[in-house]
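Running this now, will post back.
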Amino acid sequence: MSPSVTPPLDHQVPSAEELVSRAAALREQLWEDADEADRTRRVSDRNAAAITDAGLTVDDIDGIWRKATGSPQGPFEIYDVVGFNVAYNIQANNPQPSPFIEVLKRGIDNGKAGIADGEGFYTYDAEGRKTGVSPQFPEAWGD
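Update: finished.
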């Protein structure tokens, strides 16, 4: 049985209607005028902006992603599995790297770059089970 995670008192948990509305707006923003090849890049490019602009947390975005796509993991959970170093190196070798590369670099510099480190966007126990949202974010979102 995994421990429950209680949001900080100053964090308002959005209603289901608000999350659906935010997800629809985010989907429109990401998909507007994008061809299939560009959509994956746009998702990465806009994750950080969506969090700060729409007030969404990494957990909110992962939950919306899982519900909308049927995927067992959201994008931030996947970054934690793959490890920030892999994602960073892919972006670093891109002629037009995403601004999100700076978020990944900050996690790498903090020594908290995914499940292997016990922390990335989420925190993990010794067996690699998710235990909560990492306190290193959202401070890393360009501050």
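Residues 5 and 132 are 6 Å apart (CA to CA). More later if anyone needs it.
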